[in-house]
Amino acid sequence: AQLSCLARLLAAKNLTADFGSFPPDLLLFFPPSEVRAGTCREFYARASRGNLDLLPRGSFRRTRLLRGALTCLGVRGSRLEPQQLGSLGALVCDLEPGTIPASGPAILDSLKLCPALTGAQQDALNALLLTGDTAYGDPSSWDLRTLQDLGPLVLALNQTTLSLVAEAVREDFRRSTAAAYSSQGHSQPEKSLILLRAFAAASAASHPRLRRSTDGCPSEPITASSIDDIIFLSPEELDLCLSNDVLLENLEAVQELPITTESSMILKKKVDQLFPSGIPEEQLKRLGLLSRLYTEQEISQWSVTSSDTLSALLSPSGGEWNDSQVQQLLSRYLALGGSLTGPLLQEIGGKHLCNLREEQIQLIPAEALRTAGQLDISLCSQAKKEQLYRKAREAFASLASTPGPYYCRIQPYLCGAPAEDLKDLANAGVAINMDLDTFLALNPEELQKLSVTDVKNLLGENLPELKEAENDPLVVSWVKIQSQRELDCVLGIGLQGGLQEPTGTATPARPTT
Fold first, then answer.
1. Domain segments of the chain as ranges
2. Whose CA is closest to 223, among 202, 253, 198, 200?
3. Which residues, including other chains, have CB under 8 Å from residue 18's CB and lie 6 or more apart?
4. Could you list the residue ranges that cross the membrane (predicted)?
5. Which residues of the chain have pLDDT under 50?
6. Which residues are within 8 A (CB) of 225 and not within 5 positions of it... i.e. 6 or more apart?
7. CA angle 384-366-346, nearest 5°?
8. What distance in Å separates the CA atoms of residue 481 and residue 274, rounded to the nearest whole number?
9. Measured between alpha carbons, how far is residue 150 from residues 142, 179, 258, 511 in Å?
């Protein structure tokens, strides 16, 4: 929200022409109407180097950014030329799946910029690679160098594509990347670690299972000095060759290695064997990735009494929790007397915050929202949005006399605001220039209570964007109850469908005889 406010301020001062001096992240929030046609290619090329995750995928602002870039580059259909792809940068990640086969091999390097591809995009990518009509050739001819050249695209390869790659090549790739990971002291970026784990899983699927033998470990047992050798063991070998005590002493080091989910389950089993009466709280802090393997029933027995323990468990370095797990974890923490602070709310995130029960949300101190940063509560029920808005209004009450800063802090919670508060913002005497995503996320019932002038004052310089969203059901229903004359005279952006004023007295119908 702060970047959005700053971008609007710079645009208002007509500084968009000097975009080269601004960081790419800030350019993501510039109003497209301020981008000049003569320099739009340079503008979008620079903006595409920003962190697109600052704009939620599918949001109006992110969609508008891509649409503006495509218009600037003269893209008319699904096919993009190499020069156009280069100018789009990471915006390529938001293109429709049909663009991938239509643009052909030229799009592959651009797709390497994407943190993740959708399922449909992955299908399209595999279909393109399976044609063999790319610089990589047919998958059956791929060697170690080919897989390395594919880079992050390896993550998107499906079983059909992988099955065509020689097993020896897959094994060489797994071993070479794992060895490089170990030799560099586990300092590779997170994306590389994800790639290692994904490919290790694909390779493990093709290996025959070992039978458990009475002879124990078929090779040398794992020790602290040989802990990295775990990556070369199958799950069965891991069970036989890694003792519970060695695991406990090296728990953090083991979890930094690229191992499969099946091998992780072996590690979880060993931890449970070590603590049959329950995992001590100090050990819970060390679970990391393994914590995500526990069921809701198991989590309900954990001793999570301190914020440090909860923070360690919620750390993103341990991977994604599912919603029911987080709900159980937070419920357990609160049931044992814990309290939710701002830093904890940041780690929980808006999505998981919405999974709390209303009575649990009521326990959150208003002060916690002041230090929680930006929380996305769009997935909450309307009742929970209203709860959190009331807390946010209390948290930021000291800023209420300065509408600009107040809006920037309260903006994520306005989806729970009553019409009365929205009207106060509209009539504060200072333009807040509400973005359209925030406007469309307002409580539909409360939005219907806003007048034409209220909406004009809220949107400010973003008012023309309302015309682009005229077919949105929320906008349609609001327009229907407004005077068409007022829509024309006050807004003047061409919205149609309002109430028409009567032009005269109608003649009553003559009764039939």
1. 1-135, 420-498
2. 253
3. none
4. none
5. 1-2, 9-10, 12-16, 185-189, 191-192, 208-214, 505-510, 513
6. none
7. 75
8. 67
9. 10, 18, 19, 81
